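Second attempt. The first submission of Mannose-1-phosphate guanylyltransferase had a stray character pasted in from the spreadsheet, which I only caught after the job came back as garbage. Lesson logged: always re-copy from the clean sequence file. Corrected sequence (349 aa) follows.
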Amino acid sequence: MKALLLAGGLGTRLRPLTEQMPKPMAPVGNRPWIEHLVRQLRDQGVREFVLALKHYPDLIRNHLGDGKKWGVSIEYVIENETLGTAGAIKNAESLLGDCFLVFNADIVQHMNIKPLIQYHQERQATVTIGLTEVEDPSSFGVVDISETGRIARFVEKPKSGEAPSKLINAGIYVMNKEALSYIPAGREVSIERETFPLLIEAGEGVYGFTMTGYWLDMGTRERYRQVHWDLLDRKLKLPLPGKEKTSGIWTGNSCRIGDGALLIPPVVIGNRVQIGDKAIIGPYTVIGDDCRIANNTRLSETILWDGCHVREGAQLYQCVFGFGSEIGSRHILYEAFAHRIKEEEEITV
Ligand code: GTP
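This time the job returned cleanly.
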């Protein structure tokens, strides 16, 4: 079964990190999330992928290529206009089979898809929506589901105590081709707001299947950080780069740790990282490849993407810095989210 990955959104809520890159390319533990996703689905038997792209598509295409490196085949559909979550599926119709998987590529998840596919086949559903249970459903679209597993309706952002369930759309679907006839071509269409309600109204079999395992939409700053803390706590069991030489401290190749530097677990340090003397790093800190952290610096609950430079004496708390960011000496920053603007040729080559 082919998997369609929706990766063309603008990622407005994660700006400025997503100003010049698609959200699914944001690293999770120093590796683009979309690469984790492809590897993980490949390990569950998916061999053919279609990627629907719009915002900075070359960054994804250049990274994943034709998929051979990962042992899969990848085709791309690039949109000229934003088509929305259903419009993007319709636009990829010619590359999809009779039954296919769809993933919102900005959802960080570690879930078993086989039971979802099996459920879809057993019910002979038109669409089966993977559901996940959340503690507080008030900021999500919640499903009203019957005992047979059929979805009756969606309730958007229910008030406390008025939610029909704690089950929300996980952004993972099994779809039959017939569902695409309900999506108008050539305009922006939301699958959550338009297509699913339309399919339900038409009496098509729209089922929900509750999935278990790790799930978090990384679309906001808080959740992007949370994904990392869950990764470091190993609640999210994706592979971490480097070797765990000391418990909770993963270190890459060719790193230099200065005299008197202190690493407080959990910490991930990429390849070729230089950490200066008396720097204090951690807890909950992820440092990308080729970063330079000067003497007497302090980093806590902070994520640095590749190539950042933290100058002498700077202190970073709960910060996220994009590729190649520079942090001036003796700056003290709390909850900073920053991205260095790239030249156009740096982005596309
Ligand atoms: P925000 O602007 O912060 O809401 O982010 P977003 O639009 O990127 O994410 P949203 O949660 O709305 O979208 C869910 C998934 O669908 C993400 O993986 C997006 O990349 C993807 N997506 C959203 N709109 C489009 C689109 O027009 N085309 C394609 N190909 N994918 C889309």
